[in-house]
């Protein structure tokens, strides 16, 4: 299936029914699975045989949907998680523990910033945040002997900076560590980070992949390209025996293609249990079936809206990487020539008050803590998702007090622009 084009994988990837089997991915709504003998089951616990035994570890519905996302990204293995937060936590914690260090782009999603800067710091993992458009020298200076990974977002939420994936991958590999890219906003329809040197990709499937505001979820995909054994001293969790799994060495037993995800499932999902429900995985798959049809419309609408806003005298700035003249236009053209995402950020000459007045007068665009939905929605990050940040941290994340984040849905662009026009009149 991986040989097919993304459009075909969106519709048919991950699941090929046999004779007389359900055409749609069945929802295996079962916590557990039956075996004839204790020996049979023992082999599963030893990771000697593969098979299902408890849905916290693996479930056939989840695995089929994860396989589709893996094919879309061009990866070798993938797993679903209960949320994007869980996906990013697992992806990093799988290789960086107490006493380790990670380099991350400063413009990442507020929830991820908090996870790294507050919660994981408390667990003993230190982060150095760098500007996404820092020079190679500045990036180089952020590394330490105990650095275990580099992290960034293809298109940052909500700053809409574009990650120079090649630059970050190059720096990571020069230091013998993988690049983890959160590809939530671009989706594999618009960008495949593995093609540019990223090693691990994460998703909040809550966004475009689901696309209908129906289920919170996440996904981790491994490219299978990072050679853990070549940097064995940095990644003992993958290259030395796991005593909690009868002395298995993941990188040896499961190879480069399977080690990362197997360890992540066997250890982190086993112990933390942030599993996606099979019902949600089924809904996620329905979203994936039309991802390739929806993404171009999200992008078209966002570009039309960005161009309209750019002409308004009440608007002080418009940020959209797909808009000619945007600071990240060139990088977006390089990494996402067919479109970026549906999210546009902009500010008001009248400041924070003007932003709030504008939002109050919108009729089609609903105020929501959400993006990447089929329905247009709008948010004021400084008073919602990013309110835990002080002004300095806000500025580092690329957010001003008057910034409004508009997530263009897949309605008709003219109706969205008409809604914006009448709300601007009230400002
Ligand atoms: C929303 C989001 C997350 C967090 O995902 P949840 O599914 O809400 O837990 C992580 N990264 C990015 C880029 C996001 O937009």
TrEMBL record:
Recorded GO MF terms: cysteine synthase activity; O-acetylhomoserine aminocarboxypropyltransferase activity; pyridoxal phosphate binding
PROSITE patterns in the cross-refs: CYS_MET_METAB_PP
Residues with N6-(pyridoxal phosphate)lysine modification: 207
An example Gene Ontology CC term for this record: cytoplasm
Any matching Pfam family: Cys_Met_Meta_PP
CDD domains reported for this sequence: CGS_like
Cofactor needs: pyridoxal 5'-phosphate
Lineage: superkingdom: Bacteria
Gene3D superfamilies: Aspartate Aminotransferase, domain 1, Type I PLP-dependent aspartate aminotransferase-like (Major domain)
Entry keyword GTP-binding: no
GO terms (BP aspect): cysteine biosynthetic process from serine; L-homocysteine biosynthetic process; transsulfuration
Keywords: Pyridoxal phosphate, Transferase
InterPro entries reported for this sequence: Cys/Met-Metab_PyrdxlP-dep_enz, Cys_met_metab_PP, OAc-hSer/O-AcSer_sulfhydrylase, PyrdxlP-dep_Trfase, PyrdxlP-dep_Trfase_major, PyrdxlP-dep_Trfase_small
Similarity field: Belongs to the trans-sulfuration enzymes family.
Name used for this protein in its record: O-acetylhomoserine (Thiol)-lyase
Species the sequence originates in: Pusillibacter faecalis
């Amino acid at each position: 299936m991986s040989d097919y084009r993304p459009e075909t994988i969106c519709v048919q990837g991950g699941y090929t029914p046999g004779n007389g089997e359900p055409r749609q991915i069945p929802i295996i709504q079962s916590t557990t699975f039956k075996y004839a003998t204790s020996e049979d089951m023992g082999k599963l616990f030893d990771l000697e045989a593969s098979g299902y035994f408890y849905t916290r570890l693996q479930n056939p519905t989840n695995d089929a949907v994860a396989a589709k996302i893996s094919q879309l990204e061009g990866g070798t293995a993938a797993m679903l998680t209960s949320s994007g937060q869980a996906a990013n936590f697992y992806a990093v914690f799988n290789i960086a523990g107490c006493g380790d260090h990670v380099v991350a782009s400063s413009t990442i999603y507020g929830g991820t910033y908090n996870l790294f800067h507050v919660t994981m710091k408390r667990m003993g993992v230190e982060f150095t945040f760098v500007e996404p458009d820092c020079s190679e020298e500045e990036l180089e200076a952020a590394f330490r002997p105990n650095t275990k990974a580099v992290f960034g977002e293809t298109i940052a939420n909500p700053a809409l900076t574009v990650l120079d994936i090649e630059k970050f991958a190059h720096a990571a590999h020069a230091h013998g560590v993988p690049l983890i890219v959160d590809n939530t906003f671009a989706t594999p329809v618009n960008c495949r980070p593995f093609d540019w040197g990223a090693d691990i990709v994460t998703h909040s499937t809550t966004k475009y992949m689901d696309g209908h505001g129906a289920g919170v979820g996440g996904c981790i995909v491994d490219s299978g390209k990072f050679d853990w054994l070549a940097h064995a001293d940095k990644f003992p969790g993958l290259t030395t025996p796991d005593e909690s799994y009868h002395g298995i060495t993941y990188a040896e037993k499961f190879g480069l293609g399977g080690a990362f995800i197997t360890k992540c499932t066997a250890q982190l999902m086993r112990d933390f249990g942030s599993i996606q429900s099979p019902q949600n995985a089924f809904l996620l798959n329905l979203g994936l079936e039309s991802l390739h049809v929806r993404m171009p419309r999200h992008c078209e609408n966002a570009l039309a809206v960005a161009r309209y806003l750019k002409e308004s005298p009440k608007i002080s700035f418009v940020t959209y990487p797909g808009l000619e003249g945007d600071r990240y236009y060139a990088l977006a053209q390089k990494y996402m020539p067919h479109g970026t995402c549906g999210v546009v950020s902009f500010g008001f000459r009248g400041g924070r008050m003007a932003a709030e007045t504008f939002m109050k007068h919108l009729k089609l665009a609903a105020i929501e803590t959400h993006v990447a939905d089929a329905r247009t929605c709008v948010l004021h990050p400084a008073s919602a998702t990013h309110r835990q940040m002080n002004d300095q941290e806000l500025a580092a994340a690329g957010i001003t007090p008057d910034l409004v984040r508009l997530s263009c849905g897949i309605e008709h662009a003219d109706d969205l622009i008409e809604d914006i026009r009448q709300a601007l009149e009230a400002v």
